[in-house]
């Protein structure tokens, strides 16, 4: 009997291919998911299926890419420009992303985008079917592929299918606004196991399944026709050791020394996100303004290092937000700067691992205040990087990670006054208190790291499949 394969499917592959001077370059992703799953997809005949990040029309080039990826256990789904425009920038990021993050006013409901979403999910399905055997394990990731589990199930009824949602699942009152709400739920229910970061997301999903499709659940177990579907929460962790070790790396130390010299005599607050309206970046900048007005003694003594990583640059709201942030930073720096001090150090680009690691270890405060976030891993990376356990995390209650990191200073990201108070509390917090809080959080993050997250999901997937087999034997 052939060995069972595990196939990971996500919109993006853990590598991005680019065309530079006529040559193809392969850039591996350093993200948490890629790290956590590398122990899975690189084994045996396992593989990862996804979009390689470039448009390719020539068959010879597609063959070359396919061959190269195959050597590293990956298989590409080639998308056209139209697919990317309508499926990725379109239904995924103009409909689902805003709706699932409670930005209902941004969500667009266009039939053409929905059709593209279905079409591209089918493309992914076709590629999965090229490789998957009838009893293989298939783990689908995230909101771009919500229809894929049932598309695969239709063709491979016995396959073991897991699905993990990396972004929030909204409450029923929000979800029901979606014209294609039934199809989306049916698509997800093709899985054997559906995972969310938090208990609340899981509860919201189950409530929609019950109220829209009429399927009730017992302890997260949904019975649909002759199938059992388990729904559960699995808070995603980070590669703790990578960040803890990273701070001792000579390249990090070199950058750390440079930052310390440049920002000497100053307390540093860091803010690191993709450019996204869900992250609360404008609210954070407003809080900085009020903070300097209310506590002028900190002028010249505290600065914000604001890293905003370019994202979804072709989507209107992202372009508009970029302009607003540029304006606000310019205005704040114009208002408060001195010859020898700048309040906001603004970087519109991504940082290397060592750059981030140096910033995490040198910053006194991390200000992570998303208006809504599935999990947020930056706050976990900050805590893991604090070898001396000194530093304060200000964290939004609306981030999934707030459920685990209760020792952070938790704030409502819409309450600017509360953010200002939290900044003052963070900058004046006694060291013993910082150490005590961070020690607690570090212990949790060490235990529930990314590897444990993968194991827990896979173990649970096996358990559901056993329950399903028992049900069929009865
Ligand atoms: O948080 C959801 C997510 O899709 C992540 O998986 C991904 O890292 C991030 O958003 C950015 O996504 P993209 O650049 O593919 O739109």
Strand content: 15-25%
Share of residues in helices: 40-55%
Q: Which shape, going by the Cα principal axes?
A: globular
Strand order of the largest sheet: 5-4-1-6-7-8-11-10-9
Low-confidence stretches: none
State the major sheet.
Answer: 9 strands, mixed
What's the number of extended β-strand segments?
17
Label the structural class: alpha/beta
Number of helices, where a helix is a run of at least 4 consecutive DSSP H or I residues: 17
Average per-residue pLDDT, rounded, comes to 96
* Ligands and ions found: 6-O-phosphono-beta-D-fructofuranose
Distance between the termini: 26 Å
Radius of gyration: 23 Å
Keywords: Glycosyltransferase, Transferase
GO cellular component, one term: cytosol
GO biological process, one term: trehalose biosynthetic process
GO molecular function, one term: alpha,alpha-trehalose-phosphate synthase (UDP-forming) activity
Descriptive overview:
It is a single chain. With 474 residues, this protein is of the alpha/beta class. Helices cover 47% and strands 18% of the residues. The protein has 17 helices and 17 strands. The strands form 3 sheets. The chain has a 9-stranded mixed β-sheet with strand order 5-4-1-6-7-8-11-10-9, with helices on both faces. A 6-stranded parallel β-sheet has the order 14-13-12-15-16-17, with helices on both faces. Helix 3 crosses helix 4 and helix 9 crosses helix 14. It is globular, with a radius of gyration of 23 Å. The two termini are 26 Å apart. It binds 6-O-phosphono-beta-D-fructofuranose. 6-O-phosphono-beta-D-fructofuranose binds next to loops. One of its GO terms (cellular component) is cytosol. This is Alpha,alpha-trehalose-phosphate synthase. GO terms for molecular function: alpha,alpha-trehalose-phosphate synthase (UDP-forming) activity; trehalose-phosphatase activity. One of its GO terms (biological process) is trehalose biosynthetic process. Its EC number is 2.4.1.15.
């Amino acid at each position: 009997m052939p060995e069972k394969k595990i196939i990971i499917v996500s919109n993006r592959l853990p590598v991005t291919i680019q065309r530079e001077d006529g040559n193809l370059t392969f850039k591996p992703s350093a993200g948490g998911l890629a790290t956590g799953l590398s122990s899975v997809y690189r084994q045996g005949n396992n593989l990862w299926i996804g979009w390689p990040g470039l448009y390719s029309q020539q068959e010879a080039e597609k063959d070359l890419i396919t061959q190269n990826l195959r050597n590293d256990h990956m298989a590409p789904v080639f998308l056209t420009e139209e697919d990317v425009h309508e499926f990725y920038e379109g239904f995924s990021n103009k409909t689902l992303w805003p709706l699932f993050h409670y930005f209902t006013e941004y969500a667009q409901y266009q039939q053409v985008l929905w059709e593209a979403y279905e079409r591209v999910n089918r493309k992914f399905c076709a590629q999965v079917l090229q490789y998957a055997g009838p009893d293989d394990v298939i783990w689908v990731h995230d909101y771009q592929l919500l229809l894929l589990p049932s598309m695969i199930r239709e063709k491979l009824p016995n396959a073991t299918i897991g699905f993990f949602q990396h972004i929030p699942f909204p409450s029923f009152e929000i979800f029901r606004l979606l014209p294609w709400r039934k199809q989306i739920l049916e698509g997800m229910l093709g899985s054997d196991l559906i995972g969310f970061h938090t208990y609340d997301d899981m509860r919201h999903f189950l409530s929609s399944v019950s109220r829209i499709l009429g399927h009730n659940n017992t302890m997260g177990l949904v019975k649909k026709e002759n199938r059992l579907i388990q729904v559960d929460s699995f808070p995603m962790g980070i590669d703790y050791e990578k960040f803890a070790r990273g701070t001792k790396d000579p390249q990090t130390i070199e950058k750390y020394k440079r930052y310390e010299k440049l920002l000497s005599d100053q307390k540093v607050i860091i803010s690191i996100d993709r450019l996204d309206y869900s992250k609360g970046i404008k609210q954070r900048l407003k809080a900085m303004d009020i903070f300097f007005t209310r506590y002028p003694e900190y002028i010249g003594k505290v600065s914000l290092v604001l890293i905003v990583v370019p994202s979804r640059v072709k989507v209107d709201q992202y372009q508009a937000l970029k302009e607003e942030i540029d304006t606000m930073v310019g205005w704040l720096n114009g208002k408060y700067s001195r010859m020898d001090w700048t309040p906001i150090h603004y970087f519109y680009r991504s940082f290397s691992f060592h750059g981030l690691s140096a910033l995490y270890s040198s910053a006194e405060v991390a200000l992570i205040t998303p208006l809504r976030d599935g999990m947020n891993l930056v706050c976990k990376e900050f805590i893991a990087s604090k070898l001396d356990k000194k530093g304060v995390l200000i964290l939004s209650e609306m981030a999934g990670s707030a459920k685990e990191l209760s020792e952070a200073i938790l704030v409502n990201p819409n309450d600017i006054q509360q953010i200002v108070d939290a900044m003052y509390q963070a900058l004046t917090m006694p060291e013993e208190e910082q150490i005590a809080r961070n020690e607690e959080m570090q212990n949790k993050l060490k235990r529930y790291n990314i590897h444990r997250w993968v194991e827990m999901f896979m173990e649970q997937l096996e358990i559901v499949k056993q329950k399903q087999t028992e049900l069929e034997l009865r």
